[in-house]
Write a structure and sequence with these properties.
Blueprint: H1 13-25, E1 38-43, H2 49-60, E2 64-68, H3 70-73, E3 77-78, E4 91-92, H4 93-103, E5 106-110, H5 118-122, H6 125-134, E6 138-140, H7 148-160, E7 169-174, H8 184-196, E8 200-204, H9 213-216, E9 220-222, H10 225-229, E10 234-238, H11 260-263, E11 270-272, H12 285-288, H13 295-300, H14 302-316
Parallel strand pairs: 1-2, 1-5, 3-4, 5-6, 7-8, 7-10, 8-9, 10-11
Helix pairs in contact: 1-7, 1-14, 2-14, 4-6, 7-8, 7-14
The protein binds phosphoric acid mono(formamide)ester.
Length: 318
């Protein structure tokens, strides 16, 4: 594994999950793998889980992790090739990334989309420029369109909670929110569940919230949430903003919030959410605090997702 940006970087998701669960069972079994290696964690946006779980994962491998909050503490970066830098940006990624490539052995980067220009966001310029200019392996800590460490943790959690021989029914449902949010988690979850190919996968959302087909191809898509929830084994709840009329909120219907009443339609489904969650907007207290919720387990698995990815990168890149 050279970089970790999407499901396409993983030749065998099941093998990666097995190794992640081995780390969960024995966190320090490769405690010398990262000795004398350093990871830089660059945050252009806020984070709790990604930041801490990746630091813990690096430490478990004997690796030093240094966090740099670029958005708050660093020079404003320019990403466009050929830019005339007479505006707010102070340093070009072409100059900054090679320096970081000398300081660190692996670089993790968290960026968000602007949600203003779909073509720009979906070009993934920020992370691609770091790959181009840093000269060391890059791990996405969430990019403009994807959140691969989250999706790997999600699949680990699903595997832990489903022991039956049949295919599970997994439902991704849109939920209301007061702000326009990125499509990253929904895109990424769809990409990984489709790449895994072991589930009956249904996506439900209001009209206007279609997800880019490159990620959803293979899933059943419906605007009828109740129909989607029927006999579900897992319900993944997430808000995202509109994709076609890009980055907007076109539905505020609180009827899309998951409740215990709606969960009666499911096969005693486990409820997932990547967090942070707006209580009683995106998800009700009764669901979050009830027996169906596996959100804490899901967030705790972020450590093992990060650890297995880091260990694969360290092993492949010497
Ligand atoms: N789920 C997730 O990425 O959480 P943070 O934004 O806190 O990192």
């Amino acid at each position: 594994m050279k970089n970790f940006i999407s499901a396409h970087d993983v030749p065998d998701i099941n093998a990666l999950v097995t190794k992640a669960l081995e780390y969960k069972n024995s966190p320090f079994k490769s405690k010398h793998l990262g000795n004398y290696k350093r990871m830089g964690l660059l945050f252009l946006n806020p984070s709790m889980r990604t930041r801490l779980s990746t630091q813990i994962a690096a430490q478990n491998l004997g690796m030093e992790a240094i966090v740099f909050n670029v958005g708050q503490e660093g020079w404003a970066l320019e990403f466009g090739d050929g830019a005339i830098m007479n505006g707010n940006s102070v340093e070009h990624v072409k100059d900054a990334a090679p320096v970081l490539g000398k300081y660190f052995d692996v670089l993790g980067i968290r960026t968000f989309p602007s949600l203003k220009d779909r073509k720009d966001d979906y070009s993934e310029l920020y992370i691609k420029q770091f790959i181009k200019y840093a000269g060391i392996p890059i791990i996405s800590l969430e990019s403009a369109t994807l959140h691969p460490l989250q999706s790997l943790a999600d699949i680990i959690t699903i595997k832990e909670n489903f022991a039956e021989k049949r295919r599970p029914k997994i439902v991704l449902t849109w939920a209301p929110h007061i702000k326009p949010l990125p499509q990253c988690v929904a895109n990424s979850f769809s990409q990984w569940i489709n790449a895994l190919g072991e589930a009956d996968f249904v996506i439900t959302h209001p009209e206007g919230y279609e997800i880019d087909e490159q990620f959803t191809k293979g899933a059943k898509i419906t605007h009828e949430q109740d129909k989607a929830l029927q006999d579900a084994d897992f319900v993944y709840v997430k808000n995202w903003s509109t994709y076609t009329d890009y980055g907007k909120i076109s539905c505020k219907d609180p009827g899309w919030m998951l409740t215990n009443q709606k969960l009666k339609l499911t096969n005693n489904a486990k409820v997932m959410h990547c967090l942070p969650v707006r209580r009683n907007v995106e998800l009700s207290d009764e669901v979050l605090d009830g027996r169906h919720s596996i959100i804490t387990q899901q967030a705790s698995n972020r450590v093992w997702a990060a650890q297995v990815v880091l260990s694969e990168i360290l092993q492949s890149n010497g």
